[in-house]
Design a protein that fits this description.
With about 260 residues, this protein is α/β, with parallel strands linked by helices. It is built from ten helices and eight strands.
Length: about 260
């Protein structure tokens, strides 16, 4: 088990919640990217995810810049084989399990597999599930798949359980970066109670209160993207709300037994 997955698992077991900031190369550019990095240099979220939906956009330059400017754990969130680039600390090796398009269930994974093996990067097998957001998302359009309706939590749980039994180590529920509202708390709770692996939730979270509601419902990691592009100055409040800094531990070190509360 790699260091980042080990930390995610430890935090789940000790009920310590995590905040992941998503940087989308498609939209986080120029002054927006500069403002985001300035905020990340003074504030420490648990993880920084890097990935976008457009297959023509590479993650390489942003990953390199983040490694130069910050001391954060950078995790690739690739939606296409060409977004697999070196220098990140880990990557979510994702399969779009909510859809039935073989290109995103296994096709893109086959294209990138040998490259990933050669890089020797830590990989976290992840079941990616697109949840209805109230309007058509970019992921839905690009992948040519249908999201799971918010009314079909039993279907979502069966899908997540299948991923767990297949050996995936993380489930990611995503309503899309432009979701009108976050995934409902009761939906998150239903999934979290039925699986034994960490659960990440993203899409439509725009306030500390909404993030805390996701945590309370059972999310181990909340992923926030577009809100921080618009309001990078709010990042410290979100980080404080996760209580990430209370142990003041290095980024990939697990706290010693005597430091636990």
């Amino acid at each position: 088990m790699g260091k980042i997955l080990e930390r995610i698992m430890f935090n789940r077991e000790t009920k310590q919640k995590m905040l992941a900031v998503m940087i989308n190369p498609d939209t986080c550019q120029g002054g927006v990217l500069s403002a985001m990095i300035a905020s990340l240099k003074t504030t420490t979220p648990d993880l920084v995810f890097v990935g976008g939906s457009l297959t023509s956009t590479s993650n390489a330059s942003i990953v390199e810049l983040l490694k130069e400017e910050t001391d954060l754990d950078i995790v690739l969130f690739p939606r296409h084989a060409n977004q697999v680039v070196p220098h990140a600390d880990a990557m979510l090796f994702m399969s779009l399990i909510s859809g039935r398009n073989p290109e995103y269930l296994i096709g893109q994974q086959m294209q990138s597999a040998m490259k990933v093996k050669q890089m020797g990067m830590e990989t976290i097998p992840t079941g990616y599930m697109l949840i209805d957001s109230g309007k058509k998302s970019t992921v839905e359009y690009i992948s040519n798949t249908q999201p799971i309706p918010r009314t079909e939590k039993e279907v979502a749980l069966a899908t997540a359980c299948a991923a767990e039994l297949l050996g995936m180590k993380l489930i990611c529920l995503d309503a899309g970066r432009d979701a009108e509202t976050p995934i409902p708390s009761e939906f998150i709770h239903y999934i979290s109670q039925g699986i034994n692996i960490p659960l990440a939730v993203g899409g439509g979270v725009r306030s500390v209160k909404e993030m805390q509601e996701c945590f309370k419902a059972g999310a181990d990691i909340v992923v926030i993207s577009s809100h921080f592009e618009l309001h990078p100055e709010e990042l410290p409040a979100f980080v404080r709300a996760t209580n990430y800094n209370r142990k003041k531990r290095p980024k990939t070190e697990l706290p010693q037994e005597e430091e636990e509360e």
